[in-house]
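Work through what follows:
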Amino acid sequence: MDKLTPPHLQPSLTWTMEELLFLEKYRHAAPSEIFSLTKTAGSQRLFHQLFARQDATKKFPFLYTNEQIVYPISLSNEQASSERTAAFKASLLKGKRFIDLSGGMGIDSYFLAQQFEFGIVVERDAELAKITSHNFALLEQVNVQFAIGMNAEEFLSQYQGTADLVYLDPARRDQKGGKIVKLADCDPDITTLLPHLWKMTDSVLIKTSPLLDIQAATGELKHVKNVYVVAVENECKELLFHLEKDFIKEFSIHAVNFEKEKSTTFSFTLGEEKSADPQVGDIQKYLYEPNAAILKAGAFKVIAHSFQVKKLHPHSHVYTTDTLLNDFPGRRFEIIHVTNVDKKELFKFIPAMKANLSIRNFPGSVQDLRKKLGLTDGGDFYLFATTDHKGHKCVIITKKV
């Protein structure tokens, strides 16, 4: 193709010394202070950068350390992968050439470029692509070229080469800003692109909303080899579907949770989940709640079988043992007392009536139950309203281990 361009510094995007001094002066400013500044001085572009740089300290620390980096509009920042999840994606695959059909802010492409000899980044928004190209030049990540102002369909209609990996993160918002979770409603529609992709690659990696139904998506996509449910500090951030040409075996699901200083991965297949026959029994000394990635992945029975923990009820996805399991992938609690849904009984153990409340296989909402029990949120106690193996509704009073 003759429309590919290397990373290129844009003079119009380069910060002046005066602008850098302004950004440095107010880099720790509270949102209210930043909003007040907009009434008296400066460019809206600078104020946007202040907010974006504050977000980058946690989400993109590798960008934050370079003061010349330019951050695009808020939606692009919001939809971009974090540094941690992008680095994880890049660790999964490597080769000679990758193509990112939805470059966006370029976080995923930046890390993929470190695992591949060469990459092509496709981005239909010309202004966004110029910012990303500018940032890549600043970062000296020069083994990529950009297809600026082209959408995925246009690029594929002109590209004659092959790739070891095609990566795609379809846009997940409609024209009114609403969130989209169905594959066919994303832009581009990956289900219509796949026949074209299989002519140029044997490997496709797709990032989707964590709200997507895994089994429905795998049924649409076909040839799925691996599904990764990726959570950061117990909050699901994205689903990854790795497709391999002509793969017809059962796919594996990997529930990955990144904590502050470590990560855990639990892998299984739907066949293993279906055939697992966990024990169901009385509430014991410790209570376990699987992390968000495992719950989203649907490893409700196989997790109990793997760690030899008992379920409280076939449909209550909390677990119990008499001996503490420090390696269980989730939150661990010591059980203080088990009671009926009784305000007076709770008061005996929690006089301040302040506790963190969760509902697992229990009717109603957390808000309604908190109101009924007269609880305020927070504190050191963790309450689980659930159903035990005898069908009794109960509240388990616990503290974190």
